[in-house]
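Journal club prep, notes for RB
We'll compare a predicted complex against what the paper describes. Inputs for the pyridoxal-5'-phosphate case:
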Amino acid sequence: MKIETIAVHSGRFVDTATGAVTPPIYLSTTFEREPGGEYPKGYNYTRSNNPNRESLEKCLAELESGEAAAAFSSGSAVSMSIFQTLSPGDHILACDDIYHGTRHLIQLFGTWGITSSFVDMTNLKSFQSELRKGTKLVWIETPSNPLLKIIDLKSISEAAHKAGAVVVCDNTWATPVLQSPFNFGVDLVMHATTKYIGGHSDILGGAVIAKKNDELFQKIKEMQKSGGAVPSPFECWLTLRGVQTLPLRIRAQSESAMLIAEFLNSHPKVTKVHYPGLESHPAHLLAMEQMKLFGGMISFEIKGGKDEAMKLAANVKLFTRATSLGGPESLIEHRASIEGPESKTPQSLLRMSIGLEHPDDLIEDLKQALSSF
Ligand SMILES: *Cc1c(COP(=O)(O)O)cnc(C)c1O
């Protein structure tokens, strides 16, 4: 079935007790045992499993065409649980333009003897030269954050597998609607469901989907159950509700983002637009092969520096100045200042998450803000 149909139906059922079309929320933390001690319905305690979480996991596995999925309390909890399957001495090789929270978390694991390095994965040779004997995990984000670099999933996965590493793709920005990492050789897909999948800026969540329900996935699943960084039944319910409109939302957001990127690209006060849909993007052709559309995220650099970027952000009326992404409302953010003093993000850069407003209104807003200083 096509992804729109999966998004509407997968993991959902008509409640047999009441006929309710929308699934109930199972808040119960505990489930009754049979007189013999068994749990024939498959649930015993909500940290281990819960009907709402199970529904969400089934749906996410199907959306990514993976064998299994595990849902977590945040995107970062997913990353943490994957890193927790490693052993002291193991090495993580990650792309350089990675979500700053993931970079920070990888570095925290240094305390447990896990080494890491960050490399520009748009250059296969640089990537290969960073692979080591102990490289167990290769961490890809494409499009990357915040520069929207496009990484060749197929060639990076091939090179990583030759070196004996497992490949993870953070597919938060592309969503399963625009990019299917398993088709290019990736082993695990992760999502901050906080973003496009939840889609309404009202839940914090994460998920990992496994191409194969293998030993590694079982280890992650063990971390999920034993470590307990799990989403609540209500959050699972809200996320599954958000998924139903994911294909329509991301398509509309991508179409608007394309128009806005073109507008910015022709504006005299804008020096650079980072959007893979533009022909001027260095990996536009690769993006056309790997992605169905180019997503709702745009970064751009403005003539001048931090002051000009802050002024533009101060003068928008429709965009909200806030971090995060993937909701119905458009957001704008000065990325370097939220990433902190170690950030390598240009001071003149603003990142936008394009929402579901009419693109003409968003362009008007940017136009007036750009002319106000
Ligand atoms: C937000 C985000 C994360 C982290 O997700 P949280 O739910 O905030 O923990 C990871 N990767 C990417 C690409 C993100 O945008």
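Talking point for the session: The domain at 247-370 is CATH 3.90.1150.10 (Aspartate Aminotransferase, domain 1).
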